[in-house]
Amino acid sequence: MMIHTDSTDRRSRQHEETIRSLAVAMFTEKEAIVTVRGDSEAQTIQGRITKLDKERKRIKIENAFEYCWIDFPDVTGIELILD
Questions:
Q1: Do residues 72 and 62 make contact, with C-beta atoms less than 8 angstroms apart?
Q2: CA-based end-to-end distance of the chain
Q3: Where would you tag: which of 14, 22, 39, 49 has the fewest CB atoms within 10 A of its CB?
Q4: Which residues contact 50 (CB under 8 A, 6 or more apart)?
Q5: Which of 46, 15, 52, 12 is nearest to 32 (CA)?
Q6: Residues 45/33, Cβ–Cβ less than 8 Å
Q7: What tens digit of pLDDT does each residue of 33-74 get?
Q8: What is the largest CA-CA distance in the chain?
Q9: Structural domain count, the chain
């Protein structure tokens, strides 16, 4: 028997919200701000999410200056930038 705590439920809801935001960002090709868990503090990266590598569980985010691959388990949030 598994007992769910409030923090487990909160993490689960946050993960589901991040997945939905990822899908919308890719479908609409809108820019997003991706928050990533860092060693000492969270980092943010702004750009378009252009690829999803399901095998390696990572996403590719690009902007005018660079691109990078981010391990999806390190993503703590995705915020869409609306026009």
A1: no
A2: 47
A3: 39
A4: 26, 60, 61, 62, 67
A5: 46
A6: yes
A7: 999 998 889 999 999 999 999 999 999 999 999 999 999 999
A8: 50
A9: 1
**Amino acid sitting at position 58:** R
Token code pair at residue 66? 């660079």
Backbone phi, psi, residue 51, to 5°: -145, 150
Angle made by CA atoms 12, 17, 23, in degrees to the nearest 5: 130
Q: At a CB cut-off of 8 Å and minimum separation 6, what does 58 contact?
A: 69, 70, 71, 72
Please report, for the domain that includes residue 64, its CATH number: 2.30.30.100
More confident residue, 4 or 75: 75
In a domain, 38, yes or no: yes
